[in-house]
Design a protein that fits this description.
Layout: H1 6-12, E1 24-28, E2 31-34, E3 39-42, H2 45-48, H3 57-67, H4 80-92, E4 97-101, H5 104-122, E5 128-132, H6 141-146, E6 163-166, H7 171-177, E7 182-187, E8 190-191, E9 197-198, H8 201-213, E10 217-221, E11 245-248, E12 259-263, H9 265-268, H10 284-297, H11 300-324, E13 331-333, E14 336-340, H12 349-359, E15 361-362, E16 364-365, E17 370-373, H13 381-406
Parallel strand pairs: 3-15, 5-6, 5-7, 7-10, 10-11
Antiparallel strand pairs: 1-2, 2-3, 4-12, 8-9, 11-12, 13-14, 14-17, 16-17
Helix pairs in contact: 3-10, 4-10, 11-13, 12-13
Family: Belongs to the class-III pyridoxal-phosphate-dependent aminotransferase family. ArgD subfamily.
EC number: 2.6.1.11
Pathway: Amino-acid biosynthesis; L-arginine biosynthesis; N(2)-acetyl-L-ornithine from L-glutamate: step 4/4
Length: 407
């Protein structure tokens, strides 16, 4: 058998990804180890997925126990873990009904299909979906079309129609455009892929009011901001608005693939028997793990740690940014933070990530000009301090090499 190295990826995998040179083989808490046994502090969490860190004992226990009971039966029958998880989600949120799937894309696909079907039931012309530039809602053809980034749709035309993109945080433009033909307005409380840009409270409240005025649905994509990442169980809880539909995935399963669409009992009637489905959605294995993750995330102690470590991370990043002139004011919520690169460093976000890996810290980008940080919700103060120390060393090396090149 060929050696399991990065070169093998090029030989056997479709080239739609460009993974790092290192290959992680083990993880525990906020650390991962590569094939050579070197450790890395993880400030990426698999793009905000492993919210309780790697191999959390409660999740390991849940998957081990369920794996010996029942894995999959499809949705011709229900199962206990799915019922238990749905009940807890309705107890903890505004929602009265839940649809389970396998990913954020699928959760959004379900939400957009519900919105379109609901709108068409109101009027044959009520099917416009409004979303926002730099938004990201998934990679299916429908969800990538609703997302507001042309780079993800280029070459896949013709795209689904009657989708309008408007500037984010621009209430006046939305007010000028929204009409009684709009069936839904969809947004992320914090645009993750689009640069870690939070919505303003005034914008969100204005969107809510305009949706009510024009009898349109408000959809919150909380795939990335949900499940404790903002410092609340879901970001909407701190923003003074309640959506009609909420989508979630990523951190819901703590690393096991699972997604969900949450909505009201009345709206749920739109997706009557046979109108939508998912073969694996709500399977016992995924729901057992997600149930254990949800209980741990919802603990006040976990959410308090998110808020405390969010302050620590923000302050640490701002100090590093000032020290080396690499990035400016940090933005975001809780433990989803972005650091926009300074003008001289625009386009070099991946260079910072690569430098970080060399120093043993893993972070993300949100486009070419923004660094993105999404560590585990339960990361310790000591681990976060060490991660910042390693990032400082990476930035020092980058800044030093840039200075040497100029000289």
């Amino acid at each position: 058998m060929s050696q399991l190295d990065r070169q093998l990826f090029n030989e056997v995998m479709v080239p739609n990804y460009a993974p790092a040179e290192i290959i992680p083989v083990r993880g525990e808490g906020s650390r991962i180890w590569d094939q050579q046994g070197r450790d890395y502090l993880d400030l990426a969490c698999g793009i905000a997925v492993t919210g309780l860190g790697h191999c959390h004992p409660l999740l390991v226990k849940a998957i081990a126990e369920q794996s010996q009971k029942l894995w999959h039966i499809s949705n011709v029958m229900t199962n206990e873990p799915a019922l238990k998880l749905a009940k807890r989600l309705t107890e903890l949120t505004f929602a009265e009904r839940v649809f389970f799937c396998n990913s954020g894309s699928e959760a959004n696909e379900a939400a957009f299909k519900l919105a379109r079907r609901w709108g068409n039931n109101q009027s044959p012309e009520k099917n416009e979906i409004i979303s926002f530039y730099n938004g990201f809602h998934g990679r299916t053809l429908f969800t990538v079309s609703v997302g507001g980034q042309e780079k993800y749709t280029k070459g896949f035309e013709p795209l689904p129609g009657n989708i309008t993109h408007l500037p984010y945080n621009d209430l006046e433009t939305l007010a000028d455009h929204i009409s009684d033909k709009t069936c839904a307005v969809v947004l992320e409380p914090v645009q993750g892929e689009g640069g870690v840009t939070p919505a303003t409270e005034a914008f969100l409240k204005g969107v809510r009011a305009l949706c009510e005025k024009h009898h349109a649905l408000m959809i919150f994509d909380e795939v990335q901001t949900g499940n404790g990442r903002s410092g609340a169980l879901f970001a909407y809880m701190e923003m003074g608005v309640t959506p009609d539909i909420l989508t979630t995935a990523k951190g819901l399963g703590g690393g096991f693939p699972v997604g969900a669409m949450l909505t009201t009992a009345k709206l749920a009637e739109t997706l009557a028997f046979g109108t939508h489905g998912s073969t694996y959605g709500g399977n016992p294995l995924a729901c057992a793990v997600a149930g254990a993750a949800l209980e741990e995330i919802a603990r006040p102690e976990t959410l308090a740690n998110v808020r405390a470590r969010g302050v620590q991370l923000r302050q640490g990043l701002e100090q590093i940014g000032r020290r080396y002139g690499l990035f400016g004011e940090v933005r975001g919520l809780g433990l989803l933070l972005g650091a926009p690169l300074a003008e001289a460093w625009k386009g070099r976000a991946k260079d910072v990530v690569s430098a970080g890996l060399k120093q043993g810290v893993w972070l993300l980008v949100a486009g070419p000009d923004v660094l993105r940080f999404a560590p585990a919700l339960n990361i310790s103060e000591a681990d976060l301090a060490e991660a910042l120390r390693r990032l400082d060393a990476a930035c020092a090396e980058l800044a030093g090499s840039a200075g040497a090149a100029v000289a």
